[in-house]
Amino acid sequence: MNALIIGCGRVGSTIALQLHKEGWDVTVIDENEDALSRLGENWPGSFVVGHGMDTDLLRHAGIEEADAVVVSTDGDNTNIVIGQVAQKRFGVQCVIARILDPARADFYAARGLRTVCPTKTAIDTLTEAVRACEIPKVSA
Predict the structure, then answer these.
(1) What digits encode the pLDDT tens for the residues 11-35?
(2) Which of 15, 49, 64, 86 is the most buried (most CB within 10 A)?
(3) Which one, of 23, 74, 26, 30, lies nearest residue 48 by Cα?
(4) In terms of residue numbers, what domain contains 53?
């Protein structure tokens, strides 16, 4: 299985390493060549320096053979555009985009883009944690 990860920050690099451990062939794209260091000295996958909105770069990185594309740059707009390009222009069936804004994540999910919203996950988890607290009532 071939995975293309766009964005090699904490999230993208961890996903790339995990998928590689699971036997995937992984290619990572990032604008910053120094981001390769997040993958370790012996990274066996591919690393392409450039912007994930560049369709020629996406082709060079193997998007046409990708079984999955994960878009996890630090920008919602960038992730949305790249996700849609991967899905609609290149026909990748499994495209997941990280979107920090919950309203935008819902909007694009309703239109067929698989989204992950860590902000919404944090809100839900923290709200549940508060509800689970046993807070003694103080009587007056």
Answers:
(1) 999 999 999 999 999 999 999 999 9
(2) 86
(3) 30
(4) 2-132
